[in-house]
Design goal:
This protein is α/β, with parallel strands linked by helices. It contains 12 helices and 10 strands. Helix 3 links the parallel strand 3 and strand 4. Helix 8 runs parallel beside helix 9.
Length: 300
Amino acid sequence: MVRAIDVVEEALKKYGAPVYVRHEIVHNRFVVDSLKRKGAIFVDELDEIPQTTAPVIFSAHGVPKSVPEAAGQRQLFAIDATCPLVTKVHREAEIHHKRGRTIILVGHEGHPEVVGTMGQLPAGAVHLVETEADVAKLAFPPGTSLAFVTQTTLSVDDTAAIVAALKARFPEIAAPHKEDICYATTNRQEAVKRVAPLVEALIVVGSPNSSNSQRLREVAERAGCAKTALVLRADEIDWAVFGDIRSLGITAGASAPEVLVEEIIDAFAQRFEVRVETVSTADESVFFPLPRQLREAATA
Protein backbone atom coordinates (compact mmCIF):
# COMPACT_ATOMS: atom_id res chain seq x y z
CA MET A 1 0.00 0.00 0.00
CA VAL A 2 2.84 2.39 0.84
CA ARG A 3 4.38 1.60 -2.54
CA ALA A 4 1.19 2.63 -4.36
CA ILE A 5 1.09 5.96 -2.52
CA ASP A 6 4.76 6.48 -3.36
CA VAL A 7 3.96 5.87 -7.04
CA VAL A 8 1.52 8.79 -7.08
CA GLU A 9 3.87 11.02 -5.07
CA GLU A 10 6.81 10.30 -7.39
CA ALA A 11 4.70 10.76 -10.52
CA LEU A 12 3.63 14.20 -9.27
CA LYS A 13 7.27 15.09 -8.58
CA LYS A 14 8.54 13.89 -11.94
CA TYR A 15 5.73 14.93 -14.27
CA GLY A 16 3.86 17.59 -12.29
CA ALA A 17 0.12 17.94 -11.86
CA PRO A 18 -2.26 16.66 -12.93
CA VAL A 19 -1.77 12.95 -12.46
CA TYR A 20 -4.85 10.82 -13.09
CA VAL A 21 -5.58 7.81 -10.88
CA ARG A 22 -8.14 5.16 -11.78
CA HIS A 23 -10.06 4.37 -8.58
CA GLU A 24 -8.74 5.17 -5.11
CA ILE A 25 -5.03 4.40 -5.09
CA VAL A 26 -5.60 2.80 -1.66
CA HIS A 27 -8.76 2.58 0.44
CA ASN A 28 -8.04 5.46 2.78
CA ARG A 29 -9.89 8.78 2.51
CA PHE A 30 -7.16 10.74 4.32
CA VAL A 31 -4.53 9.55 1.83
CA VAL A 32 -6.77 10.17 -1.18
CA ASP A 33 -7.69 13.69 -0.03
CA SER A 34 -4.02 14.49 0.61
CA LEU A 35 -3.07 13.38 -2.91
CA LYS A 36 -5.94 15.39 -4.40
CA ARG A 37 -4.54 18.53 -2.81
CA LYS A 38 -1.19 17.82 -4.47
CA GLY A 39 -2.72 17.49 -7.93
CA ALA A 40 -3.96 13.92 -8.29
CA ILE A 41 -7.31 13.52 -10.04
CA PHE A 42 -9.23 10.36 -9.18
CA VAL A 43 -11.64 8.84 -11.70
CA ASP A 44 -13.78 5.73 -11.76
CA GLU A 45 -13.13 4.83 -15.39
CA LEU A 46 -10.71 5.79 -18.16
CA ASP A 47 -13.40 7.45 -20.25
CA GLU A 48 -13.54 10.23 -17.65
CA ILE A 49 -9.96 11.20 -18.55
CA PRO A 50 -9.49 13.68 -21.43
CA GLN A 51 -6.92 12.96 -24.13
CA THR A 52 -3.71 13.82 -22.29
CA THR A 53 -0.01 13.12 -21.96
CA ALA A 54 -0.29 13.18 -18.15
CA PRO A 55 0.35 9.91 -16.30
CA VAL A 56 -2.61 7.60 -15.67
CA ILE A 57 -2.03 5.38 -12.65
CA PHE A 58 -3.79 2.09 -11.90
CA SER A 59 -4.53 1.51 -8.22
CA ALA A 60 -2.85 -0.94 -5.84
CA HIS A 61 -5.81 -3.31 -6.08
CA GLY A 62 -5.11 -4.23 -9.71
CA VAL A 63 -7.28 -3.89 -12.81
CA PRO A 64 -8.84 -6.20 -15.39
CA LYS A 65 -6.77 -6.71 -18.53
CA SER A 66 -9.31 -4.66 -20.45
CA VAL A 67 -8.16 -1.48 -18.65
CA PRO A 68 -4.51 -1.35 -19.80
CA GLU A 69 -5.70 -2.47 -23.24
CA ALA A 70 -8.10 0.49 -23.38
CA ALA A 71 -5.34 2.82 -22.15
CA GLY A 72 -3.07 1.53 -24.90
CA GLN A 73 -5.70 2.11 -27.58
CA ARG A 74 -5.95 5.73 -26.42
CA GLN A 75 -2.15 6.01 -26.18
CA LEU A 76 -2.39 7.11 -22.57
CA PHE A 77 0.78 7.11 -20.47
CA ALA A 78 -0.15 4.34 -18.03
CA ILE A 79 1.74 3.52 -14.82
CA ASP A 80 0.72 0.33 -13.02
CA ALA A 81 0.77 0.66 -9.22
CA THR A 82 -0.74 -2.78 -8.63
CA CYS A 83 0.63 -4.35 -5.45
CA PRO A 84 3.16 -7.06 -6.42
CA LEU A 85 1.35 -9.48 -4.10
CA VAL A 86 -1.84 -8.94 -6.12
CA THR A 87 0.12 -9.37 -9.35
CA LYS A 88 1.34 -12.70 -7.93
CA VAL A 89 -2.28 -13.85 -7.64
CA HIS A 90 -2.95 -12.71 -11.22
CA ARG A 91 0.00 -14.74 -12.51
CA GLU A 92 -1.08 -17.80 -10.51
CA ALA A 93 -4.56 -17.60 -12.02
CA GLU A 94 -3.15 -17.27 -15.54
CA ILE A 95 -0.86 -20.28 -15.08
CA HIS A 96 -3.73 -22.42 -13.78
CA HIS A 97 -5.87 -21.35 -16.74
CA LYS A 98 -3.12 -22.26 -19.22
CA ARG A 99 -2.93 -25.69 -17.58
CA GLY A 100 -6.63 -26.23 -18.21
CA ARG A 101 -7.83 -25.72 -14.66
CA THR A 102 -11.05 -24.05 -13.58
CA ILE A 103 -10.23 -21.42 -10.97
CA ILE A 104 -12.02 -20.68 -7.71
CA LEU A 105 -11.33 -17.26 -6.19
CA VAL A 106 -11.93 -16.75 -2.46
CA GLY A 107 -12.89 -13.10 -2.03
CA HIS A 108 -15.55 -10.43 -1.62
CA GLU A 109 -17.81 -9.74 -4.58
CA GLY A 110 -17.38 -6.26 -6.02
CA HIS A 111 -14.07 -5.50 -4.28
CA PRO A 112 -11.68 -3.86 -6.80
CA GLU A 113 -9.06 -6.55 -6.25
CA VAL A 114 -11.58 -9.30 -6.99
CA VAL A 115 -12.81 -7.47 -10.11
CA GLY A 116 -9.21 -7.11 -11.26
CA THR A 117 -8.31 -10.75 -10.63
CA MET A 118 -11.41 -12.10 -12.37
CA GLY A 119 -10.70 -9.74 -15.25
CA GLN A 120 -7.36 -11.40 -15.99
CA LEU A 121 -9.13 -14.31 -17.65
CA PRO A 122 -12.10 -14.89 -19.98
CA ALA A 123 -15.60 -14.69 -18.50
CA GLY A 124 -16.55 -17.91 -16.74
CA ALA A 125 -12.96 -19.03 -16.11
CA VAL A 126 -13.04 -17.86 -12.46
CA HIS A 127 -15.72 -18.76 -9.91
CA LEU A 128 -16.02 -16.54 -6.83
CA VAL A 129 -16.80 -17.91 -3.37
CA GLU A 130 -17.26 -15.76 -0.26
CA THR A 131 -18.32 -18.34 2.33
CA GLU A 132 -18.25 -22.04 3.14
CA ALA A 133 -21.89 -22.14 2.02
CA ASP A 134 -20.79 -20.93 -1.41
CA VAL A 135 -18.33 -23.82 -1.58
CA ALA A 136 -21.14 -26.27 -0.90
CA LYS A 137 -23.07 -24.89 -3.89
CA LEU A 138 -20.26 -25.36 -6.39
CA ALA A 139 -20.94 -27.90 -9.12
CA PHE A 140 -18.50 -28.94 -11.84
CA PRO A 141 -18.59 -31.70 -14.45
CA PRO A 142 -16.82 -34.91 -13.42
CA GLY A 143 -13.10 -34.78 -14.07
CA THR A 144 -12.86 -30.97 -13.90
CA SER A 145 -9.36 -29.89 -12.91
CA LEU A 146 -9.57 -27.18 -10.22
CA ALA A 147 -7.32 -24.62 -8.55
CA PHE A 148 -7.95 -21.83 -6.05
CA VAL A 149 -6.48 -18.39 -5.32
CA THR A 150 -7.49 -15.82 -2.72
CA GLN A 151 -7.95 -12.09 -2.32
CA THR A 152 -4.91 -10.72 -0.48
CA THR A 153 -6.76 -8.72 2.21
CA LEU A 154 -9.00 -11.37 3.75
CA SER A 155 -9.19 -12.67 7.30
CA VAL A 156 -6.68 -15.46 7.72
CA ASP A 157 -9.12 -17.47 9.84
CA ASP A 158 -12.07 -17.06 7.46
CA THR A 159 -9.92 -17.99 4.50
CA ALA A 160 -8.59 -21.06 6.29
CA ALA A 161 -12.14 -22.29 6.88
CA ILE A 162 -13.14 -21.75 3.26
CA VAL A 163 -9.96 -23.37 1.95
CA ALA A 164 -10.58 -26.35 4.23
CA ALA A 165 -14.08 -26.66 2.79
CA LEU A 166 -12.68 -26.52 -0.75
CA LYS A 167 -10.13 -29.23 -0.04
CA ALA A 168 -12.75 -31.40 1.64
CA ARG A 169 -15.06 -31.19 -1.39
CA PHE A 170 -12.31 -31.28 -4.01
CA PRO A 171 -9.32 -33.19 -2.61
CA GLU A 172 -7.32 -32.80 -5.83
CA ILE A 173 -7.69 -29.01 -6.02
CA ALA A 174 -4.42 -27.16 -6.71
CA ALA A 175 -3.40 -24.66 -4.02
CA PRO A 176 -1.08 -21.62 -4.19
CA HIS A 177 2.62 -22.43 -3.73
CA LYS A 178 2.73 -19.69 -1.09
CA GLU A 179 -0.01 -18.03 0.96
CA ASP A 180 -1.86 -15.41 -1.12
CA ILE A 181 -2.90 -13.23 1.81
CA CYS A 182 -0.68 -10.14 2.11
CA TYR A 183 2.07 -10.47 4.74
CA ALA A 184 1.09 -7.06 6.17
CA THR A 185 -2.50 -8.26 6.58
CA THR A 186 -1.37 -11.50 8.23
CA ASN A 187 1.04 -9.77 10.62
CA ARG A 188 -1.56 -7.23 11.75
CA GLN A 189 -4.17 -9.91 12.34
CA GLU A 190 -1.74 -11.94 14.43
CA ALA A 191 -0.88 -8.88 16.53
CA VAL A 192 -4.58 -8.14 17.09
CA LYS A 193 -5.19 -11.73 18.21
CA ARG A 194 -2.48 -11.30 20.80
CA VAL A 195 -3.61 -7.90 22.08
CA ALA A 196 -7.42 -8.10 21.90
CA PRO A 197 -7.94 -10.45 24.88
CA LEU A 198 -5.75 -8.21 27.05
CA VAL A 199 -7.51 -4.85 26.55
CA GLU A 200 -10.93 -3.42 27.30
CA ALA A 201 -11.30 -1.86 23.87
CA LEU A 202 -9.58 -1.81 20.48
CA ILE A 203 -9.59 0.75 17.69
CA VAL A 204 -8.67 -0.02 14.09
CA VAL A 205 -7.48 3.06 12.22
CA GLY A 206 -8.72 2.82 8.65
CA SER A 207 -11.46 3.52 6.14
CA PRO A 208 -14.82 1.70 6.09
CA ASN A 209 -14.19 0.55 2.49
CA SER A 210 -10.82 -0.99 3.39
CA SER A 211 -11.17 -4.76 3.38
CA ASN A 212 -8.09 -5.45 5.49
CA SER A 213 -9.20 -2.85 8.07
CA GLN A 214 -12.66 -4.41 8.39
CA ARG A 215 -11.07 -7.82 8.84
CA LEU A 216 -8.91 -6.48 11.70
CA ARG A 217 -12.02 -5.28 13.54
CA GLU A 218 -13.66 -8.68 13.07
CA VAL A 219 -10.54 -10.46 14.31
CA ALA A 220 -10.56 -8.30 17.46
CA GLU A 221 -14.20 -9.15 18.16
CA ARG A 222 -13.59 -12.87 17.72
CA ALA A 223 -10.55 -12.70 19.98
CA GLY A 224 -12.75 -11.49 22.82
CA CYS A 225 -12.51 -7.70 22.81
CA ALA A 226 -15.88 -6.33 23.92
CA LYS A 227 -15.52 -2.82 22.46
CA THR A 228 -14.17 -2.41 18.94
CA ALA A 229 -14.44 0.33 16.35
CA LEU A 230 -13.10 1.21 12.92
CA VAL A 231 -12.31 4.94 12.70
CA LEU A 232 -10.36 7.06 10.25
CA ARG A 233 -9.75 10.18 12.34
CA ALA A 234 -9.85 11.14 16.01
CA ASP A 235 -13.06 13.11 15.58
CA GLU A 236 -14.87 9.83 14.81
CA ILE A 237 -14.16 8.35 18.26
CA ASP A 238 -17.36 7.73 20.21
CA TRP A 239 -16.34 8.92 23.67
CA ALA A 240 -19.54 7.50 25.14
CA VAL A 241 -18.07 4.08 24.33
CA PHE A 242 -14.35 4.76 24.79
CA GLY A 243 -14.44 7.40 27.51
CA ASP A 244 -14.20 5.15 30.57
CA ILE A 245 -11.66 2.47 29.64
CA ARG A 246 -8.35 1.66 31.36
CA SER A 247 -6.65 -0.23 28.52
CA LEU A 248 -6.88 0.25 24.75
CA GLY A 249 -5.42 -1.50 21.74
CA ILE A 250 -4.78 0.46 18.54
CA THR A 251 -3.93 -1.06 15.18
CA ALA A 252 -4.15 0.23 11.63
CA GLY A 253 -5.12 -1.01 8.20
CA ALA A 254 -2.30 -1.47 5.71
CA SER A 255 -3.09 1.83 3.95
CA ALA A 256 -3.47 3.99 7.09
CA PRO A 257 -0.50 6.36 7.54
CA GLU A 258 1.29 6.57 10.88
CA VAL A 259 0.13 10.17 11.37
CA LEU A 260 -3.46 8.95 11.82
CA VAL A 261 -2.42 6.46 14.50
CA GLU A 262 -0.57 9.24 16.32
CA GLU A 263 -3.64 11.46 16.05
CA ILE A 264 -5.74 8.80 17.79
CA ILE A 265 -3.15 8.39 20.54
CA ASP A 266 -3.02 12.17 21.03
CA ALA A 267 -6.81 12.30 21.37
CA PHE A 268 -6.68 9.78 24.22
CA ALA A 269 -3.68 11.57 25.77
CA GLN A 270 -5.83 14.71 26.07
CA ARG A 271 -8.29 12.80 28.27
CA PHE A 272 -6.16 10.17 30.00
CA GLU A 273 -2.68 9.60 31.28
CA VAL A 274 -1.29 7.46 28.46
CA ARG A 275 1.48 4.86 28.51
CA VAL A 276 2.22 3.28 25.13
CA GLU A 277 3.47 -0.28 24.68
CA THR A 278 4.21 -1.63 21.19
CA VAL A 279 3.33 -5.23 20.34
CA SER A 280 4.83 -6.71 17.18
CA THR A 281 4.60 -10.26 15.86
CA ALA A 282 6.98 -9.89 12.89
CA ASP A 283 9.50 -7.54 11.33
CA GLU A 284 8.41 -6.34 7.88
CA SER A 285 11.51 -5.89 5.72
CA VAL A 286 10.02 -6.72 2.31
CA PHE A 287 10.86 -4.13 -0.37
CA PHE A 288 9.15 -3.72 -3.75
CA PRO A 289 10.68 -1.32 -6.29
CA LEU A 290 8.65 1.44 -7.93
CA PRO A 291 7.45 0.95 -11.52
CA ARG A 292 10.21 1.31 -14.10
CA GLN A 293 9.03 4.77 -15.27
CA LEU A 294 9.60 6.20 -11.78
CA ARG A 295 12.77 4.47 -10.58
CA GLU A 296 15.11 7.00 -12.17
CA ALA A 297 13.21 9.88 -10.59
CA ALA A 298 13.24 8.23 -7.17
CA THR A 299 16.99 7.56 -7.40
CA ALA A 300 17.69 11.16 -8.41
